[in-house]
Amino acid sequence: NFEEISDEEKRFPIAFARTVYRDYLMLEQMLSVEYAPHNVYCYSLDRKADKKFKERIRALSRCFSKNVFVSDEEYNVYSSGKNVSRSHLACLEKLNKRKEDWKYVVLLQNHDLPLRTNAELVRIFKAYNGTNDIATKNIVPNTVVKSLDWSLKGLRLYRNENAYPPNIKQLNHTKSLNLIVLSRAAVNFTLKQLNVYPFIDQYVIWRTYGKQTNRCMSDYLRHDMPSFDYGAIFCWLSTLAARRLSREIDINEKYYQQLPHIFQ
To answer: Which residues form a coiled coil (predicted)?
Structure first.
């Protein structure tokens, strides 16, 4: 029953790209809360995931074949970051070829929970006015080998040799989360104008100095993640589903419009 979907939502389709590897039932329940027939959903499978999990995800995509699908490529994805970007790019490549006029895409990991209803996301993304939502901060020292060539031309970053901006010669490195929100225009530019794979390869291969270890270097925290509690997840998703059915919208649109990076 999609009677709770407003015309505003239908005029503003959203895409979701999620890298997955475990906990199928939780993923199915998240889709039941997020799903709208005018949105599009892409799952990128971790190559290491077990066979039964992959079969379930593919069966789910067949049930909703019009707008739920699985990316063509599989990568061995690691929590250290290896192949996370490639996994998402596999979905972005497929999403960008779709006929749906989606406005924004949300990049997600396996256990990233929705915090807003679809109607609220539409209001937030409309407030963004075409701006991307990418959190950045300074990188940890020694995570970039500075002796390597990080110039735009050295990385062959642009597909067109004549497209290099004259006032930008070198990349400045910053750190971001994997969970980001990109406009359709940004995705199209990245896939059509840029060649990002040499940069990804160079950064992943030469990411840190010295020998790596699995030992907990701080002797305090290893992954900084709490124990998995499905009861809390079920409770929250039920709450979000109820809010969606009631058409409740609880956001301060002016807050998003006044964020410093938003296009005015």
So the answer is: none
